[in-house]
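Chapter review: from sequence to fold.
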Amino acid sequence: MNASTGAKIWSYATGDIELASPAVSGGIVFIGSTDNITYALNATTGATVWSYTTGSFVHSSPAVSGGVVFIGSDDSNLYALNASTGAKIWSYKTGGAIVSSPAISGGVVYVGSFDSIFYALNASTGAEVWNYTAGSYVRSSPAVSGGVVYVGSGDDMVHAFAGTPGTSIPEFPESLTFFTILISVLIAVLVERSLGRHRSSRV
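The token string follows.
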């Protein structure tokens, strides 16, 4: 669609419904479908650039970094595909369906799985860097900011990982509001500052 007018520029028919969100990079639109296929389409014309067939539905939304498309499938695999050709660079098999959309930062790709495990993989090789087992499935898509990885899980928890690989910093139930979390952090900071001043006065 034309972003200014809404006029349709092109459309493309896949073999089944689309539940994933597209990613656009280098003039190519990448999207997965429940026909088990990941499509790469010319962003201007809608013509097929390439397609890659996985072993099951593709609910995961793709992430693109460094000329590589990372996308999960219900066949339990995370795939790294050449963004130009669709050739498989590597795949990593988890113990459950991957509905989570991957995030990439610092040469590491992060993704959750229905096996209740959150994975950090080397983006170049697919080798496991670390993993963390949550209390339930991880269908949430991770976000990375300031060297911290955030992700939710089916046990009503939000997890934050930083520092030592796989080390979880304080977790919060998803039912807590942002402001409740913010107040908790501020209280912790004030207490630490107060203790610091108290230690200084005793020196």
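Two observations follow directly from the output. The two ends are 68 Å apart (CA to CA). The chain has one helix and 16 strands.
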